[in-house]
Write a structure and sequence with these properties.
Helix content: over 70%
Structural class: mainly alpha
Radius of gyration: 21 Å
Number of helices: 6
Strand content: under 5%
Order of helices and strands: HHHHHH
Shape: globular
Largest sheet: none
Number of strands: 0
Distance between the termini: 48 Å
Length: 180
């Protein structure tokens, strides 16, 4: 098999490559936004998601427990609130950038839905599988210990998901275009 020498690239190919490079430089794009993404970037996106999820989870469990609800309604409330607070944190940042509410809402949905869903699945899965965690009360060390461990596991397992999404221009990569 014979390879063409490097010099045989057409002038058009060189111009196209240069135009792409100029576009990326002008708009502040790096290879990090599409392709190679640092673990730090993915961890920051996941931590953002974790913050909203943790607020919603804890608030949902506190409300459900205080109202004497059973495990299933309390868990549903906690999940709904996790999505609400996760989206709200992103929405707040995008709105600050001067984006209209409808666009900001679409950005929040695109940025956070998969991340929050994965985090909630893992977080709640750990709680359900942890012996006696579902029956623990707010005053029990087991309640707070299981919740903490479940959120840490959710963070660790969701970070690669966010890294993959950001590397493809999805997830929190969508949000970053509004943070110039």
């Amino acid at each position: 098999m014979q390879h063409e020498p490097h010099d045989t690239h057409t002038e058009h190919e060189h111009q196209a490559h240069e135009a792409q490079h100029t576009h990326e430089s002008h708009h502040g794009h790096t290879h990090e936004s599409h392709g190679t993404v640092s673990w730090s970037t993915a961890a920051q996106a996941t931590l953002h998601c974790l913050t909203g999820c943790a607020i919603g989870e804890v608030l949902g469990m506190v409300i459900g427990t205080a109202l004497g609800w059973g495990n299933v309604p309390t868990m549903i409330l906690a999940i709904v609130l996790a999505f609400f607070f996760g989206y709200s944190l992103t929405l707040r940042g995008v709105l600050k950038a001067g984006v209209d509410f409808r666009t900001a809402f679409k950005v929040a949905l695109a940025a956070d839905t998969l991340s929050i869903a994965v985090m909630e699945l893992i977080d709640n899965g750990v709680i359900v599988l942890w012996p006696n965690a579902m029956d623990a009360h707010l005053s029990d060390l087991l309640f707070w210990g299981a919740l903490t461990v479940s959120l840490v596991i959710a963070f660790v397992l969701t970070t690669p998901v966010n890294k993959w999404m950001i590397g493809r221009g999805k997830g929190h990569a969508v949000v970053h275009q509004y943070h110039h």
